[in-house]
Specification:
single chain, 142 residues, mainly alpha, 38% helix
Length: 142
């Protein structure tokens, strides 16, 4: 059975580039401290804040983006306290920042190839959190 359509040219060039496409560096950002006044208490929500505040996507964030991260972190805090109906809302919010590869494709966001992965050592060790214990506490509260 033959292939569909003509074979691509040897030196084909993609011509349908989008002018609104965003290319961001892979370099992690310095992040921001989580405001103590927000009252976030769960380790999962604190980890969520740290992950997003240090993400490459946050390099160009405006104050309104940081405000959205604060609100979303409060929702994540409530999720870890057992309010599971917030999961869909959280997923919609993080999709707008390019949380998954699929989200980044839809947003026409890509990472620059200039960064060499693994060249830098992590700035700090991740907090010692026993995820099994955290999950057990989360599930046993119901």
């Amino acid at each position: 059975m033959g292939s569909r359509g003509p074979n691509p040219k040897e030196n084909s060039v993609r011509r349908n580039k989008h002018e609104g496409a965003t290319e961001i560096s892979r370099e992690p950002q310095s992040g921001r401290e989580l405001a103590k006044g927000l009252g976030v208490t769960t380790p999962g929500a604190k980890r969520f804040w740290r992950t997003w505040s240090e993400s490459p996507q946050s390099a160009d964030w405006l104050e309104t983006d940081w405000a959205e991260l604060e609100i979303t972190t409060l929702l994540v805090d409530q999720l870890y306290k057992g309010d599971y109906k917030l999961a869909g809302e959280i997923r919609q919010r993080v999709a707008k920042w390019g949380a998954t590869n699929e989200d980044r494709v839809r947003l026409r966001m890509s990472f620059k190839k200039d960064s060499v992965e693994g060249s830098k050592e992590p700035s700090e060790a991740p907090p010692e959190v026993n995820m099994d214990e955290e999950l057990y506490k989360l599930l046993s509260d119901n």
